[in-house]
Amino acid sequence: MNSSGEPANFHMMEEAPPAPPARAGLDREPRNTGRAPTAAITGAQSIHRAFAVLRLLANSGPGGLTLTDIARDLDLSAPTAYRILRVLMQEGAVERLSTGRRYVVGAEVALLGLSTRAPLTLQSIAAPILERLCQEAGDAVFLTVRSGFDSVCADRKIGTYPVQVLSIGIGSRRPLGVSVGGMAILSALSPAKASAILEANAARFAPYKTSPAALAERLDASRARGVVYADPAIVRGTRAVAVPVLDQAGNPTAAISTIAIRQRIPAQRVALLTNQLRAAAADLSRALAEAAKQSGSRRA
Q: pTM (2 decimals)?
């Protein structure tokens, strides 16, 4: 192990950024708010807009976005976007970089996360299970959760094999179905719900070089197979396998996946990885149920 805790001779493969929308031309994730666009305007629209700004900035990376970017991507006037940013800056939820007129998520958002009422977070419960899985598999494993119409990488663990495919960073968002973790979550939803999500996200898939029809076909194949298998995965020359994590009612709480260079996942190894992933998902389901039971007992 080196000083960073990575295996010796460690090499990392990361995903090249998806081709941006034609109007953008900037090297960052396709911008999105994490929810389907709606035409209706409610009395709480300012709150919705503020959260849309925060989601957008959370997905923009460390370089942040300009006022023009934010106004354009959220279809807001510049004065409206500025007013929202000003209030969020006053509350510490947004900060402006000293190097220019670019905005990023502020430290207050992280501090609010520390005060969550849940005694144990999904990440802390899943951590030992993911650690054990990545040691067994030898490759990077990922924990994915749903946020509206997006999938979000909640955690990842690095395996022991010298070449690791770290295709998604913690906190990265993608439209549900683009990543194997997101597809695993979709596969555990009812066909009607999954189809509605694909339809709502239809305009967001092009930067990832896919389409609603292609994802619907992959979704059908995943349901028939009982596991999500991608060849190639989101990074060229890689393969990935994913399964959903279900709650006691059978609803998808999260997904666990692994991705590796193509040679690491030959056809004959897919069954073994599937069993390892399913065992980890079952362990996490039981651990989450037990944590919920203990939390209920404390409240009682």
A: 0.70
